[in-house]
C-alpha cells in the first residue's frame, strides 16, 4: 500500500498561484501513476491532471490545461501541482491519487482546500 499526504492549499486571489505537494510513503512510489483530482461543494470529484510513472507523460483536464502543471520527483516520493492564473471556479478540495497499473488499486490522500477569491 501507499499513504498520501497533501499540502500547500490555501486562500489566494484570482490570478494568483499555488503549488500543491503530495508526499507518499509505503510501497515503491515510481510504480504508481499519479494524479490530482478536485471536488467542489455539491459537485462530483473530477480529474485535474495525471503523470506517468516516469514523469515523462502528463495529461490535463481541458479546464486547467495551460494553467496547471503536474510533475513528480521519484527520489523524493512527491508529486506536485503548480497552479497559475487561478480562477474562482478552481475553488475545491484537491486530492492526490496513486494508481497501480498492476492490480488497479487506487489510493487517496485526505485532501487540501484551495479557495480562490474574486
The parts where pLDDT drops under 50 for at least 5 residues are: none
Helix content: under 10%
Q: Over all CA atoms, what is the radius of gyration?
A: 13 Å
Q: Give the mean pLDDT.
A: 96
N- to C-terminal distance: 40 Å
* String of helices and strands: EEEEEEEEEEE
Principal-axes geometry comes out as globular
Query: What share of the residues does DSSP label as strand, in percent?
Result: over 45%
Q: Total number of β-strand segments?
A: 11
- The helix/strand class is mainly beta
Number of helices: 0
**Main β-sheet: number of strands, strand sense, barrel status?**
7 strands, mixed
Give a structural overview.
It is globular and about 40 Å long. The mean pLDDT is 96. It starts with a strand and ends with a strand. By secondary structure, the chain is an all-beta fold. The relative contact order is 0.31. Strands 2, 4, 5, 6, 9, 10 and 11 form a seven-stranded mixed β-sheet that branches. It has a four-stranded antiparallel β-sheet with strand order 1-3-8-7, with no helix packed on it. The protein has no helices and eleven strands.
Topology:
Elements: E1 2-7, E2 10-13, E3 18-26, E4 33-39, E5 46-51, E6 58-60, E7 68-73, E8 78-83, E9 92-99, E10 106-108, E11 112-117
Parallel strand pairs: 2-11
Antiparallel strand pairs: 1-3, 3-8, 4-5, 4-9, 5-6, 7-8, 9-10, 9-11
Summarize the structure.
The protein is about 0% helix and about 55% strand. It is an all-beta fold and about 120 residues long.
What descriptors fit this protein?
globular, 118 residues, mainly beta, four-stranded antiparallel β-sheet
Amino acid at each position: 500500500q501507499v499513504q498520501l499526504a497533501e499540502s500547500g492549499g490555501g486562500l489566494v486571489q484570482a490570478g494568483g498561484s499555488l503549488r500543491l505537494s503530495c508526499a507518499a510513503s509505503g510501497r515503491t512510489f515510481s510504480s504508481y501513476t499519479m494524479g490530482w483530482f478536485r471536488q467542489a461543494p455539491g459537485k462530483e470529484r473530477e480529474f485535474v491532471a495525471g503523470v506517468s510513472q516516469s514523469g515523462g507523460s502528463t495529461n490535463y483536464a481541458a479546464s486547467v490545461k495551460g494553467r496547471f502543471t503536474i510533475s513528480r520527483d521519484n527520489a523524493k516520493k512527491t508529486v506536485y501541482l503548480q497552479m497559475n492564473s487561478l480562477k474562482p471556479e478552481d475553488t475545491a478540495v484537491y486530492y492526490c491519487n496513486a494508481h497501480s497499473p498492476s492490480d488497479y488499486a487506487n489510493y487517496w490522500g485526505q485532501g487540501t482546500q484551495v479557495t480562490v477569491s474574486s
